[in-house]
Amino acid sequence: MSENALFTRFQQRLTTLGGECHYAHNLDEAAHIIADHPALAQHQLVTPPGFSEYQPWGAILEPLFSMGVRMRVAGSVAAIADAAAGLSQAVLAVAETGSVMIAENSLEARSVSMLVLTHFVLVSEHDLVAMLDDVGERLQQLTKAGPEQRHYISLITGPSRTSDIERVLTIGVQGPRALCVIIVGV
User: Where would you tag: which of 45, 51, 57, 126 has the fewest CB atoms within 10 A of its CB?
Assistant: First the structure.
């Protein structure tokens, strides 16, 4: 399946689940998508510790700053809770389910993906896979002991949702109310 077909399938599935999906040719375009998003109106963007060192994603911080986006590095979990918006990077995206896989080593980085109200996720178009079955090999790599090992791995499929409260679907009770995935052609 071509990258364009994978993107279309991913976008359709994520949108069906209540998420947003955009394509950006480069990090400057991705920065514009984030900076122009209503979730950032007069608010800050929380980034995981060390995000500026993530390759290639850290390069997005300078254009965001030049567009007037206020940013802060995630500190304690309590300081992240209910922040207006957060930014993460995914190690892959699954077209079949509209899911992204976040793999981090710090609780603060993981908390950005779980506790902010709007979660922005960057993922390379080269890390877009067709099926959930394709996740297995990457998951094995990330859990194998060594320098690439990750301790916090999550598959995120759309905004947080639950029907626990009187069997009524509620969005954003146990996680972000909004999920915006940006597939970047880097």
Answer: 126
Q: Which residues share a beta bridge with 93?
A: 100, 128
Total residues found in the chain within this entry? 186
> pLDDT tens across 22-57, in order?
999 999 999 999 999 998 877 789 999 999 998 899
Entry pTM? 0.88
Cα 28 to Cα 36: distance, rounded to the nearest angstrom: 12
Q: Give domain limits for the chain.
A: 3-184
What superfamily in CATH does domain 3-184 come from? NagB/RpiA/CoA transferase-like (3.40.50.10420)
- Joined together, the tokens standing for residue 96 give 């079949």
The residue written with tokens 């394509």 in the block is: 23
The list of the chain residues with pLDDT below 50 reads 161-163, 168-173
Give CA–CA dist 9/45, Å, rounded.
28
Q: CB of 156 within 8 A of CB of 121?
A: yes
Q: For residue 152, which of 78, 45, 48, 10 has the smallest C-alpha distance?
A: 48
Residue with tokens 């908390």: 111
What are the structure tokens assigned to 34, written together? 């984030």
Q: Please tell me the distance from the alpha carbon of residue 140 to that of residue 38, in angstroms, as a whole number.
A: 37
- Angstrom distance (rounded) from CA 171 to CA 28: 30
Distance CA 102, CA 99 (A): 10
